[in-house]
Amino acid sequence: MVAASAAVVVASAGAVQTVVQEHSVPAFAAATAGPDRDPVTERPLDNNCSGGNVTFTFDDGPRENTEKVLDALDGYGIDAVFFWNGQKIKGRERTVTRALAEGHVIGNHSWDHPDLTTGELPDGSTDTWSAGWVRSELERTNDALVAAGAPRPTLYRPPYGAINKQVDDVAQELGLRLVMPWGYHEDDNIVDTHDNEGASSQEIIDATVRGMQDESIITMHDGQGQATLNSVDALQAIVDAMNEKGLCATTKMREDTTGNVLEMYG
Fold it and tell me: Staple partner for 182: which of 18, 24, 35, 192, CB 3.0–4.6 Å?
């Protein structure tokens, strides 16, 4: 793996362009590069980090647009944290391998995206809720990620941000720390882009640039259709703003990532 901040020289439209990569540029990426991949973008992250760091997070994958997200992140020099559903791992082990090789972190987003506080599944059916059922949702996902070559997750994000103390107690027993997709208070410093709610690329840009500051957690989705593509399209303008503000990207989570939501719901 090449060290961070390595200069990469590429040919683009007959000219030579030097791009500073602020994240890992592994041999895996070079070995898999081809006509479908353009890992270098026009204006990547390139500043002195004087404004601090933000953490990009992506939920609901891995799915068909996850590779497009990885392409963009690689080009912009962003390492991110992905929260993935266990049932979507099978058949996408190579995506897991790639994400890890490119410096990203993978967290737990449950097995099949239910509301962990009620047992309601995305199709409207309901599993019988119990602490054991919650444990199974999280453990099966941990096991699927480990089987695909990932480290056992230490972070989890509940689908829909649905959480209570009973669910979090089970997660903590499994060594998982809560990372909310939104905060109860505006100053909780979690920027929900609302990309999965139909936000346009410009709306995603506006919400992110307006809210991001040192230690911000930015919530996006790689496991969606057009919503994911809108977030990908928004990244260049967000990166431009980060360069202006001296903000870099990190996968290191700050100490408080609960958004004070447990205090609200009990």
Answer: 192
Strands, E assignment, 21-51 = none
pLDDT digits 0-9 by tens, 75-93:
999 999 999 999 999 999 9
Query: In this predicted structure, what is the pLDDT of residue 16?
Result: 33
The string of DSSP codes covering 184-212 is SSGGG-EEE--GGGT--HHHHHHHHHHH-
Rounded Cα distance, 72 and 92, in Å? 18
Selecting among 59, 60, 71, 115, the annotated active-site residue is 59
Which residue in the list 104, 109, 113, 221 is annotated as catalytic? 221
Quick check: 129 pLDDT over 90? yes
Instruction: Confirm whether 59 is a catalytic residue.
Output: yes
The answer on pLDDT for 13 being more than 50 is no
Structural element, H or E, at residue 262: helix 261-265
Q: How far apart (Å, rounded) are the C-alpha atoms in residues 132 and 140? A: 12
Q: State yes or no: is 221 an active-site residue.
A: yes
